[in-house]
Amino acid sequence: MFNTIKTAALSGLVALGTLAAVPAHADSIYLGFGNNHERRTGVYVGDDDDGFRREHRRRGCSPDRALDKAERMGVRRARIIDVSRRTVKVAGRQYGDRVVIVFANERGCPVIYR
């Protein structure tokens, strides 16, 4: 029994030593035991590869951001009609009329033409 406890304690120390040896420049360390959708156990070290971080690194105005901003401005049934290097055009309806909003392809999606 004492040998089992000793082996478990030694394994725990080795695991903690391994975590301490992880480079300081790692973007994320995730210790997971699973959730409702996936049953995984382990330690994950590295970049967090989800769309949220990738989207925030992008400097311009994405079509999704332009659609969200147009809907917040009151445009219903908003859709992308053109994406170029400098602009993102969104069309939809507002107060029963057709509207086209042109956003600059820059951070924050500033409105160029309404």
Summary tags:
about 110 residues, alpha+beta, 2 domains, four-stranded antiparallel beta sheet, two-stranded antiparallel ribbon, 3 helices, about 30% helix, rod-shaped
Please give the structural blueprint:
Layout: H1 2-20, E1 29-32, E2 42-45, H2 51-57, H3 63-72, E3 76-83, E4 87-94, E5 97-104, E6 111-113
Antiparallel strand pairs: 1-2, 3-4, 4-5, 5-6
Q: Strand order across the biggest sheet?
A: 3-4-5-6
Radius of gyration: 25 Å
Question: Fraction of residues in helices?
Answer: 25-40%
The total strand number stands at 6
Question: How are helices and strands ordered from N to C?
Answer: HEEHHEEEE
Instruction: Work out the strand percent.
Output: 25-35%
User: What is the mean pLDDT?
Assistant: 77
- Helix/strand structural class: alpha+beta
Distance between the termini: 77 Å
Structure explained in plain terms:
A four-stranded antiparallel sheet has the order 3-4-5-6, covered by helices on one side. The termini are far apart. It has helices at 2-20, 51-57, 63-72; strands at residues 29-32, 42-45, 76-83, 87-94, 97-104, 111-113. The longest helix is centred in the N-terminal third of the chain and has 19 residues, at 2-20. It has 114 residues and is α+β, with helices and mostly antiparallel strands. A hairpin with a 2-residue loop joins strand 4 (87-94) and strand 5. It folds into two domains: 2-49, no CATH class; 59-113.
